[in-house]
Specification:
Number of strands: 11
Strand content: 15-25%
CATH class: Alpha Beta
Helix content: 25-40%
CATH topology: TIM Barrel
CATH architecture: Alpha-Beta Barrel
Distance between the termini: 46 Å
CATH superfamily: NADP-dependent oxidoreductase domain
Number of helices: 8
Shape: globular
Strand order of the largest sheet: 3-4-5-6-9-10-11
Amino acid sequence: MDMVSPLTDRHVTLNSGHDMPLVGLGCSKIFLQYGQLADESIVSVILDALGSGYRLFDCSPGWANEPAVGKALTQWCSTAGNTRDQLFVVTKLPPYGNRPEDVEKHLRASLNDLQLDYVDLFLVHMPFGLKRKVGDSSSDIGNMQMDFSTDHIAIWKMMETMVELGLTKSIGLSNFGIRQIRKICAVAKILPAVVEVELHGNLQQKAMIELCSTHNIQLLGFAPFGSPHKASMIMKNS
């Protein structure tokens, strides 16, 4: 039987008019901390989270687990009493898609993997762009190098189009700096509803909090306990 705890049942209303749960499950650790798990293990993790009351799921195609997450969400929604509108699903435009002409393609790919008609929040994952090396056809992602032609404003205009197309309810930014956010806000037709950054006791982001408050943007913190699992990864490669 699913549970709804006092924490996971609390919401905040975004500047887009939509409600977002205050607590959610970030799906990066499923990939980054434990390596690529078998799909059935990922499905089990997501279903356990749903059973514990979680309704917000923070996803990204870069974590290579959206198909399994989608399978779990579809399974949960097929149970009597559970509906799509009870969920808040986040996905992101990956760095290798940071070109205006690629925004819709990558969002539709995530929707297909997640088995959804829309997401609740679509974020630009990183402020920098990556591009494929010419002639590399080893995989869809390929071997990456920096794309110095990344145009934040052009990308943001396409993000706004995704709202107009009904493919996402809200849009936002992830890992962007203060000057970059200000530049986008100055020309945006639709303001970012959410800015997601690392936020915890050792990285309090006071200037970012002030900026988001000024523009009525909801700040979403990831790694609220820091990233203790990364210490062993860093030491291993040092």
